[in-house]
Design a protein that fits this description.
The strands form two sheets. Strands 2-1-3-4-5-11 form a six-stranded parallel β-sheet, with helices on both faces. A six-stranded mixed β-sheet has the order 7-6-8-9-10-12. α4 links the parallel β3 and β4. It is 48% helix and 16% strand. The N and C termini lie far apart (78 Å). By secondary structure, the protein is an alpha/beta fold. It folds into two domains: 140 residues, Rossmann fold; 136 residues, Rossmann fold, CATH 3.40.50.2300. It has 14 helices and twelve strands.
Length: 339
């Protein structure tokens, strides 16, 4: 065998050896295999926000329960009747139990909530938020797992107001009523967005603050609504910045002696009552912030941070509109309190 042929055979042998070693490396099994209930042993306290069994809070709760089932943590649920002061007290009590993580509604705002959250984080408790942002805490503690799951509050409000003006052909000088939560520092941004959009279009805007009784039990606001409509018979649009109040629009309008075509109704969040009202013409436009995700994803966030050290995620869950054109698809999911 001459030198040239020998060199060729040696070269081919080396190439084949390299290919075989590469194939063996590629065929190596992964370092870890998927694990069921990989968050088992982690203790989380979760705030669904409203009263137990209430509109919207139920969807949030259902999402969290599904995450608990899928991932395996132990979860305690704390219901707050949408009361910021109650949330503050309940957070103190939750932190005292030393859980691995707490998923909070941000309704009390940064000024009231931040000292308590910072104290909890200093004790090694993971804190994350849903529904209402706590921007200072998120910015400061994202690396420790502080995230947000929910709408861009101001943007969602402005989008609903603008869409209502466009769809209903409202014009300068038309009267609108906004029933919202301006008094709450961050949560009120959604109400402000609605008002700004309507005023930008030249509408006359009457604002009513949702009182504590109506915030907890929307039916309690029926006399307020009927009284307003009686005093302002020219109102053309009512916007309810609250899932529970939106679900009660049909009741409010009937109590005020109005039919489904007398006043345009717009609001936030789907529920079985709201889907029925859309089909019946009582509610005309709803922006859906997908509250089920506001339950599922914060549980996932705490698990990701506790088990794998992942940082906080900021997830915008809202932006889509529900109306008579797409409600038939959404209604079965709303009945299950998923959408």
């Amino acid at each position: 065998m001459n030198t040239r042929r020998l060199s060729l055979l040696i070269g081919i042998t080396i190439v084949l050896a390299l290919l075989l070693s590469t194939s063996a490396a590629l065929a190596k099994p992964p370092a870890t295999e998927p694990v069921e209930k990989w968050c088992k042993g982690v203790h989380i306290v979760f705030f669904p926000g409203g009263p137990a069994g209430g509109v919207f809070a139920n969807n949030v709760y259902n999402g969290a329960k599904q995450a608990q089932l899928d991932l395996g943590p132990t979860v305690d649920y704390v219901f707050s009747d949408w009361d910021p002061q109650k949330m503050i007290q309940q957070f103190r009590e939750a932190a005292a139990t030393k859980p691995d993580g707490i998923c909070v509604m941000g309704h009390p705002g940064d000024e009231s909530f931040d000292p308590l959250i910072e104290d909890a984080i200093s004790q090694g408790i993971i804190v994350t938020s849903q529904n209402t942002t706590l921007p200072k805490m998120e910015e400061k503690y994202a690396s420790k797992g502080f995230g947000y799951v929910g709408q861009d509050l101001y943007g969602a409000g402005f989008a609903l107001g603008s869409e209502a003006v466009k769809r209903f052909g409202l014009k300068e000088g038309d009267r609108a009523m906004v029933w919202g939560l301006l008094s709450q520092p961050t949560r009120g941004l959604r109400t402000k967005g609605v008002i700004d959009a309507l005023k930008k279009a030249g509408l006359v805007v009457d604002y009513i603050e949702i009182d504590a009784a109506t915030n907890k039990d929307p039916a309690a606001g029926t006399p307020t609504f009927a009284g307003y409509v009686s005093a302002h018979p020219d109102v053309k649009l009512v916007v309810t910045d609250h899932g529970g109040l939106t679900a009660t629009l049909e009741t409010y309008l009937k109590a005020a002696g109005k039919g489904p075509d007398d006043i345009y109704g717009a609001g936030f969040d789907l529920s079985p009552a709201t889907t029925a009202a859309i089909k019946g013409g009582w509610t005309d436009l709803v922006i859906d912030q997908q509250p089920w995700l506001q339950g599922y994803l914060p549980i996932l966030q705490v698990c990701l941070t506790k088990v794998y050290g992942f940082s906080g995620l900021h997830i915008d869950t809202g932006g889509g509109f529900a109306d008579k054109n797409n409600i038939d698809f959404l209604a079965p999911l709303a009945e299950k309190e998923i959408r």
